[in-house]
Amino acid sequence: MLQALVKDIIHTYTYPEVFVITIAYFLVLYLGFAPVFLFICKSLWKRGFLQRIVPQEVTTRQIRFEIRHSLQSVLVFGFSAIPLVGMIRQGWITLLPDTLGYVFMGLTMLTIWNEIHFFVIHRLMHLPFFMKRVHYIHHRSVTPTVYSVYSFHWLEAFLLSTVPLTIVPWIPFSPLAIFLYPLVSILLNFCGHCNYRFGNGTGAGWKILSTRHAEHHCKGRKNYGFASHLLDYLYNLNTAKAKSSVSKKQQQPNA
């Protein structure tokens, strides 16, 4: 049934219908899954399986701010499916069969690509110009919540929505993988913004998904990756080498 729906969206529905369906899909992911995810986290926290990262309670005013800007972002996300559907109909994008293997491989590749894509956009957003005018909205959530996952300025929402558009035209994916990836993405985002973690956060594992990004919000840690620390490690290593090289040149006596 899901395969048939995705096929109809790609080949049969009008572009306004694609726009409305995409908005509805993201609304279900956001408004439907966020309270369920939060309920599970609180239940596990009460039973001692999770630890709250930032102990302060979040105000109702913050939640309203996050939901308001998230709904704005969802409207922006509504446009993201239109160019993909258009290119598929024009034959510019090759699709793979919806086998279990292709769906799993596609979701894996999109998750890896999203990490790279997110790092680039996130680093750009922390440049002074964008931080002051765009990214500050997301950082209004000093203590992140599940409702802050889509709380963006419209420009940042647009840039982040281009994940499939920046890879699908060049690498074939199955339609189901493309359709299901927003679900995978928002679950990862819930993990990074829910303000809960397994254990004390000193080891690997869950710290990658929760503590690091929560500390980016509440402590201003300069980590720009999301689910993985690898790109931050490579970026910091390269930055340190560049600074060291500049320092050595400055210390050399003039000829």
Task: Give an overview of the whole structure.
The chain has a two-stranded antiparallel ribbon with strand order 1-2. The termini are far apart. Helix 2 (15-46) packs antiparallel against helix 3 (60-77). By secondary structure, the protein is mostly helical. The chain has eleven helices and two strands; from the N terminus they run ααβααααααβααα. The model has no long low-confidence stretch (mean pLDDT 88).
Low-confidence stretches: none
- Structural class, by secondary structure, is mainly alpha
| Elements, N to C (H/E) | HHEHHHHHHEHHH
pLDDT averaged residue by residue: 88
Order of neighbouring strands in the sheet with most strands: 1-2
Shape: globular
The helix count comes to: 11
Largest sheet: 2 strands, antiparallel
Q: Approximately what portion of the residues adopt beta-strand conformation?
A: under 5%
User: Can you give the helix content as a percent range?
Assistant: 55-70%
Q: Between the first and last Cα atoms, what is the distance in angstroms?
A: 75 Å
Q: Please state the CA-atom Rg, rounded to the nearest Å.
A: 20 Å
Give the tally of β-strands: 2
Features:
64% helix; 2 strands; 2% strand; globular; two-stranded antiparallel ribbon; 255 residues; mainly alpha
Brief account:
This protein has 255 residues and is mainly alpha-helical. The protein has helices at 2-11, 15-46, 60-77, 81-89, 100-125, 128-135, 154-160, 175-193, 206-209, 211-218, 230-251; strands at residues 50-52, 196-198. The protein has a two-stranded antiparallel sheet with strand order 1-2.
